[in-house]
Design a protein that fits this description.
Blueprint: E1 15-20, E2 26-31, E3 35-41, E4 47-54, E5 60-65, E6 73-78, E7 83-88, E8 102-108, E9 115-120, E10 128-133, E11 137-142, E12 153-159, E13 164-169, E14 178-183, E15 194-200, E16 205-211, E17 221-224, E18 233-238, E19 242-249, H1 252-256, E20 265-273, E21 280-285, E22 291-296, E23 300-306, E24 312-319, H2 327-341, E25 345-351, E26 354-359, E27 376-378, E28 387-389
Antiparallel strand pairs: 1-2, 2-3, 3-4, 5-6, 6-7, 7-8, 9-10, 10-11, 11-12, 13-14, 14-15, 15-16, 17-18, 18-19, 19-20, 21-22, 22-23, 23-24, 25-26, 27-28
């Protein structure tokens, strides 16, 4: 059960991104009106705008929060070819404007084209910031002094053969630093449009370890699932459909020991949903990495959840006006349509304008349960009260 609330944003143009802080009590929005707004949730659950200011001279594509250990810090990127870091400071606001408490600490101007995404690294990697741009270059910056956010040094430049549209850091502590980079390149002959880069401590370089060939459509958003002890990585990918892919490291020991060999992965697509019937634009995982939320051009937001068998399904659906779709009625209607239209028939006979069908096997949508080793079995011939463990 969820409750939706409508907030009058007062943005004068399209909102491109919404980002929550670590605790979920603050929210940042950015828009084509070149502004960023900060929203705070009160004790009554209502949201109010606490800051609003012009950040760039072009459309602002993305906004993201740093970990609160580094203070109240956000980063933005824009069509004006720059990324900027902003910090909230009490006592530094000007008397003539209550919305000047956010101070620009630095402007990153290395890109020659539109900066399409910006993300802070996980906390255990320090205060690092990754940007990607339409020129196909991923840049990684680091602030050597957390107390002086005006100083950022360019640590790495990763050249991609494709136009970059989005990126995501892997949050796992048990594996080397990893970044997924998506592309919206219009060239259909370039192959996979999602690339995985891994940092090697021995060479101090980022290396491309995978190109996910199964992703051939333009990638609008990509997000690593939070990893709470899993031995594999999981990616949500927003394209023409919603895809979920798992990456199982095959050379995990060699990678963790700092050897120069690149980690190899076993890739598996566990889900591919076209429920949006349109382009999927944004993705977001919950903090445990068990629920994925997607939004698309169909003016709907959907929540997806997987079970212990790795099967994913839509558990909730919300329209753009905040109303919830009745999933039980929709699923029952869809199941009836499937049973009528997709179940093959062996023969039929007509009798008084009534057609009788003989179905071949169970209808689509049923679940076959296979017995696993160690499950109890009943010997019905001898004594049903006894349980034999095989």
């Amino acid at each position: 059960m969820f409750v939706s609330k409508s907030i009058q944003s007062d943005h004068k143009d399209l909102i491109h991104d919404v980002s929550y802080d670590f605790f979920g009590r603050r929210m940042a929005t950015c828009s084509s009106d070149q502004t960023v707004k900060i929203w705070d949730q009160g004790e009554d659950g209502e949201w109010s705008c606490s800051a609003s200011w012009k950040t760039h001279s072009g459309s602002v594509w993305r906004v993201t929060w740093a970990h609160p250990e580094f203070g109240q810090v956000v980063a933005t990127c824009s069509f004006d070819r720059t990324a900027a870091v902003w910090e909230e400071r009490d006592g530094e606001c000007r008397a003539d404007d209550q919305y000047k408490s956010w101070i620009k600490r630095t402007s990153l101007v290395d890109s020659r084209t539109s900066v399409t995404d910006v993300k802070f690294a996980p906390k255990h990697l320090g205060l690092q910031l990754a940007t990607c741009s339409a020129d196909g270059i991923v840049r990684i910056y680091e602030a050597p002094d957390m107390m002086n956010l005006s100083q950022w040094s360019l640590q790495h430049e990763i050249s991609s053969s494709l136009r970059c549209s989005c990126l995501s850091w892997n949050t796992s502590r048990r594996h080397p630093p990893m970044i997924a980079v998506g592309s919206n390149d219009r060239n259909s002959s370039v192959g996979g449009k999602l690339q995985i880069y891994e940092y090697n401590d021995a060479t101090r370089k980022w290396n491309k370890v995978e190109t996910i060939a199964m992703v051939t459509d333009a990638v609008h958003d990509v997000a690593f699932s939070p990893n709470l002890g899993r031995s594999y990585h999981m990616l949500g990918i927003a394209t023409r459909t919603l895809k979920i892919i798992t990456m199982e490291p095959l050379r995990r020991d060699a990678a963790l020991s700092g050897q120069t060999g690149l980690t190899k992965f076993e890739l598996r697509q566990v889900a591919d949903f076209d429920d949006h019937n349109s382009q999927v634009w944004r993705l977001c995982w919950n903090v445990t990495g068990t629920v994925l939320v997607s939004s698309g051009d169909d003016n709907k937001v959907r929540m997806w959840k997987g079970n212990y068998l790795g099967n994913w399904k839509c558990i909730a659906e919300m329209k753009g006006d905040g109303t919830r779709v009745d999933m039980e009625n929709r699923n029952s209607t869809n199941q009836k349509d499937v049973n009528k239209s997709q179940v093959p028939t062996r023969n039929y006979r007509r009798q008084s304008d009534v057609t009788y069908h003989t179905e071949m096997g169970p209808p689509q949508g049923t679940m076959n349960i296979r017995r696993s080793d160690g499950w109890p079995t009943f010997n019905t011939k001898k004594d049903q009260s006894k349980v034999n463990i095989l």
